[in-house]
Specification:
333 residues; 9-stranded mixed sheet; 4-stranded parallel sheet; asparaginase activity; Asparaginase_C; Rossmann fold; 23% strand; hydrolase; Asp/glu_Ase-like_sf; alpha/beta; 9 helices; 2 domains
């Protein structure tokens, strides 16, 4: 644990999890997560001038693709301890591969007033124009800002401030990869000052938040000519299913019988593979339409994209939520 002391200043704890922002050349032609959180902070220009007192915890040293639900549950516990010890805000640095999922999971689990800000980098520190230091500085400024309090988990990237529940990774390499398709950013960091243009609506409390057991949730994306083979035997292997359907929530007619059968055995959530917009409820009436599937027991994901729908369903199932509670949570979360 490393501290950068500054008297009478906002206190922010940084949890370093690895990812591109912390990667260096391993001598074999590729980069791997190796840098400590203290090393990341040492590369941030102008940090001392912010007056923020920063404490660093090296929580994990993994690529984003290798993070798990267990890692995030443990991280949220550690965040709670850091805030109880006096942190005004928290920054999490990690790999961008899974930020849209981990940030939303943190948002669901974290019920504190202190802001939790997730950031990372698209260009590792060995590359020209590495974006990690700028992203980390912006994230620290947001986490230390009183304006960000009570907003749950935020993603700060490329000087934009996004709500975790809306943000998506939309490009494999661009530094402007994080976008909130349905809402746009909440604000921006301008000349070192967080400028919030709007605030997300308050989160309704989940019926269950504490994990009572483990859950396995499958995600199946429907595609042209899909014959439903991926659905075979799924209820015996998984506790829940998210179906990423066409358009506003549609599947081929041949998938209707197996999906209806699955919905009678495990919760099946219907999302749109488009990644933006809401699943409809009553516009289309053909076999395999959203109206048909919802009438057969599938649960609408609403505005949740498939990845976030899977995260929410996992949290609910792991906490022992009933089918009715799951339906309500998707309608209101």
């Amino acid at each position: 644990m490393t501290s950068i002391p500054s008297a009478d200043a906002p206190q922010v704890t940084v949890f370093s999890l690895g990812g591109t922002i912390a990667m260096t050349d391993d001598g074999r032609g590729g980069v791997v997560p190796a840098l400590s959180g203290a090393a990341l902070l040492a590369a941030v220009p102008g940090l001392t001038e912010t007056g923020i007192t920063v404490t660093v915890e090296d929580f994990r040293r993994l690529p984003g693709a290798s993070l798990t639900f267990d890692d995030v549950y443990e991280l949220v516990e550690a965040i709670g301890k850091a805030v109880a010890a006096g942190a005004h805000g928290v920054v999490v640095t990690q790999g961008t591969d899974t930020i849209e999922e981990t940030a939303y999971l943190i948002d669901l689990l974290w019920d504190g007033h202190a802001p939790v800000v997730v950031t990372g980098a698209m260009r590792n520190p060995t590359l020209a124009g590495a974006d990690g230091p700028a992203n980390l500085l912006a994230a620290l400024l947001v986490a230390a800002s009183p304006q960000a309090a009570g907003m749950g988990c935020l993603v700060v990237f490329n000087d934009e401030i996004h709500a975790a529940r809306h943000v998506r990774k939309t490009h494999a390499t661009s530094t402007a990869t994080f976008v909130s398709p349905n809402t746009g950013p909440l604000g921006h960091v301008v000349e070192g000052v967080p400028r919030l243009l709007t605030r997300p609506t308050p989160k309704p409390p989940l019926p269950h938040r504490q994990r009572a057991g483990r859950a396995r949730v499958a995600l199946v994306t429907v595609s042209l000519g899909d014959d439903g083979e991926l659905l075979r035997g799924l209820a015996e292997r998984f506790d829940g299913l998210v179906v990423a359907g066409f358009g506003a929530g549609h599947v081929p007619a041949r998938l209707v019988p197996p999906l209806e059968d699955l919905a009678g055995r495990i919760p099946v959530v219907l999302a749109s593979r488009t990644g933006a917009g809401s699943v409809l409820t009553g516009t289309y009436g053909f076999p395999g339409s959203e109206r048909d599937l919802l009438a057969r027991g599938l649960i609408s994901a609403g505005w949740h994209d498939p990845l976030k729908a899977r995260v929410l369903l996992h949290v609910l199932l792991a906490a022992g939520a009933t089918r009715e509670e799951i339906t309500t949570a998707f309608a209101t979360a």
